[in-house]
UniProtKB/TrEMBL annotation:
<dbReference type="GO" id="GO:0003857">
    <property type="term" value="F:(3S)-3-hydroxyacyl-CoA dehydrogenase (NAD+) activity"/>
</dbReference>
<dbReference type="GO" id="GO:0004300">
    <property type="term" value="F:enoyl-CoA hydratase activity"/>
</dbReference>
<dbReference type="InterPro" id="IPR029069">
    <property type="entry name" value="HotDog_dom_sf"/>
</dbReference>
<feature type="domain" description="MaoC-like">
    <location>
        <begin position="214"/>
        <end position="270"/>
    </location>
</feature>
<dbReference type="Pfam" id="PF22622">
    <property type="entry name" value="MFE-2_hydrat-2_N"/>
</dbReference>
<dbReference type="InterPro" id="IPR002539">
    <property type="entry name" value="MaoC-like_dom"/>
</dbReference>
<dbReference type="GO" id="GO:0044594">
    <property type="term" value="F:17-beta-hydroxysteroid dehydrogenase (NAD+) activity"/>
</dbReference>
<protein>
    <recommendedName>
        <fullName>MaoC-like domain-containing protein</fullName>
    </recommendedName>
</protein>
<feature type="domain" description="Peroxisomal multifunctional enzyme type 2-like N-terminal">
    <location>
        <begin position="26"/>
        <end position="156"/>
    </location>
</feature>
<dbReference type="InterPro" id="IPR054357">
    <property type="entry name" value="MFE-2_N"/>
</dbReference>
<dbReference type="GO" id="GO:0005777">
    <property type="term" value="C:peroxisome"/>
</dbReference>
<dbReference type="GO" id="GO:0006635">
    <property type="term" value="P:fatty acid beta-oxidation"/>
</dbReference>
<dbReference type="Pfam" id="PF01575">
    <property type="entry name" value="MaoC_dehydratas"/>
</dbReference>
């Protein structure tokens, strides 16, 4: 979801909706997957955590490291300009006012720890919300050799520090997460942040209880928060097995500052 004020944004719906993105090929390896796991806190509390060490190390004869499902949230950035948004004809906005609104991920098969893949990106929706324009982007990622689909990312973006500095090495270099001056310009009041994960046919919700406030310093990437929540669910409900997560949904409505404690609440309801 992309939102921006009418003063800073000019939208030509016909041009936006007609735009065709070129396919983007790229590769990743175990270093990328391990760096991502560390970026969302894997083994942060215990360097030899029995349920997380396999995300960063070949243990007990393990031929490949395992990959966190939320790792694929990085794939759409391969088609963006490196700071988390797409150069899209017909949509002009102030990048300093860009915020990620929500993310939905579907996983179609176990993720290999390395591979050559292809992104196909399209505009999934464009909505006029009065004071804001809402842009939905959808990226489908396939194995380059076989054409088998790995995953789908659908994201909404909002236009109108150590953990962030570490996580940005995964490829999201938006200065909102590292530059104090830009963060102060972009900061504005928001409501609450919640994330939902789909595991074995059930949803798990993570909700913050912070009050409304205006951020005045760099904030953590929403996808980093989502990665922390995903990792917590895998460790607590999936016994450390990432392939049990089939889809993930997160809505980013309240910012998180690097260094704050993230609490993930989960509960069982029968078999869900």
């Amino acid at each position: 979801m992309a939102t921006s004020s009418k003063v800073t944004t000019a939208v030509d719906p016909a041009v936006v909706l007609a735009h065709k993105f070129p396919e983007v090929s790229f590769s990743y390896d175990e270093r990328d997957a391990a760096l991502y796991a560390l970026g969302v806190g894997a083994c942060g509390a215990d360097a030899v955590d029995d349920k997380e060490l396999h995300f960063v190390y070949h243990r007990d004869g393990q031929r490949q490291i395992k990959v966190l499902p939320s790792f694929v949230s990085l794939f759409p950035t391969k088609a963006s300009n490196g700071v988390g948004y797409f150069d899209l004809p017909g949509l002009n906005f102030d990048p300093a006012l860009l915020l990620h609104g929500q993310q939905y991920i579907e996983i179609y098969r176990p993720l290999p720890s390395y591979g050559n893949v292809v992104n196909k990106t399209k505009v999934a929706g464009l909505h006029d919300k009065g004071k804001a324009t809402v842009l939905e982007m959808e990226t489908t990622t396939s194995l380059q050799d076989s054409g088998e689909i790995l995953c789908m990312n659908r994201s909404d973006s909002l236009f109108i520090l150590l953990q962030a500095l570490l996580y940005r090495l995964n490829g999201d270099y938006n200065p909102l997460h590292s530059d104090p001056m830009i963060a102060e310009v972009a900061g504005y009041a928001t409501s609450a942040q919640s994330c939902f994960l789909f595991v074995f046919g059930s949803f798990v919700k993570i909700l913050s209880d912070e009050d409304l406030c205006r951020f005045t310093r760099p904030i953590l990437h929403g996808l980093c928060t989502l990665g922390f929540a995903t990792r917590a669910v895998i460790k607590s409900f999936c016994n450390g097995e990432p392939t049990l997560v089939k889809s993930i949904f997160g809505r980013f409505l309240l910012h998180v500052y690097p260094g704050e404690t993230l609490a993930t609440e989960m509960w069982l309801d029968g078999q869900k």
